[in-house]
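Ligand: nickel (II) ion. Inputs:
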Amino acid sequence: MKKKWNMKKAGVLLLAVLMTLGITLTLAGCGGDNQSVSTAEDTVGEQANAAGNGSTAAVVRVHTKGVKPKKGGTSNNQIGSREVDISGIDPNKPMIALTFDDGPGRGTEKILQVLQENDAKATFFELGSKIKEHPELSKKLADAGMQMASHTYSHPDLTTLSDAEIAKQYEKTDKAMEQATGLKPAALRPPYGSLDEHVQSKTPYPMILWSIDTLDWSSRDAKAICNEVYNANPEDGDILLFHDIYDSTAEAIETLVPYFKEKGYQMVTVEQMFAVKEKKLKNGNFYYNA
Ligand code: NI
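Predicted complex:
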C-alpha cells in the first residue's frame, strides 16, 4: 500500500539518497557476488532515542535504514504462551529475519516458492483486508511454517485513531487471519512504523519495526532493491523490510534468498530469531532488530 509522505520522511529519504550517492557504487547488479560497502550510520535521532525496549516512545516514524539501537532482552523461548519451533537453527551462526508487509498480494506466491526452495523462513505482516481477498495465499504461507503477523486491517496511521478504532483494526485482522489459517497473529507491524505511547498502551502484541528498509516500495526495481540490501550489509539480528505486493520484490527475492544462503545467513522468522537469541518480546513494546 502506498506510503504516506510528509516533509520529515522526504527529508530522511533525501538524506539516504545523498548518502548512497556519496559512496562509490560499482555493484554489478542483482545477481553478482557484490558484497557491500558499509554506509555511515543512518541513525535518526528520534529513533535512536526511542530504540531499545520501546517503553518511552514519543511518536516514532521510521522509513530509513541502518538503525542500530542498543540491544537488550532477557531469556525466554516463548511469546506469551506460544511455543516457537527453533529446531535446526544454529545460535552460533548469523541469522536475519526477512519480513513482508501489505499482502497477501501479487508477489506472495513467488516469494513463498523461493523461500521453500532454499529452506528459508520469513514473517508476513498481513492486512486483514487483503487476507479477505486472498485467504488461500495466507493459508499457504501458514501451512509452510511462515510466521503470520498483523499489519492492521486497512493500513491506518494508528496514532490518529481512537481506542475503539485501534481495537477494531486488530480484532478484524485477528478474525480474518484465524478464519483463513487457523492462526492468530502474534506480532504487529504498525503501518508507516507509526506509533506513540497511546498506541503502545492499546496494543496486545509486540510491535516489530525493522533495521533495514529495502525501499522496495519506492524503487519498484529488483536491481535497486538488491543493491539497497547489499549496501546495508545485513548483520546478525537484522530485520529487513519488504512488501510482497510487487513483482519487483519477488524478482529481487529470487536473487537475495540464494545470496544469503550462500553467505551463510540463516533466514528465520522474527519470533524464531528472538527465541534463539533468548530475547523476550513484550506486548506493547517495539523492536528494530534482535
Ligand atoms: Ni504497510
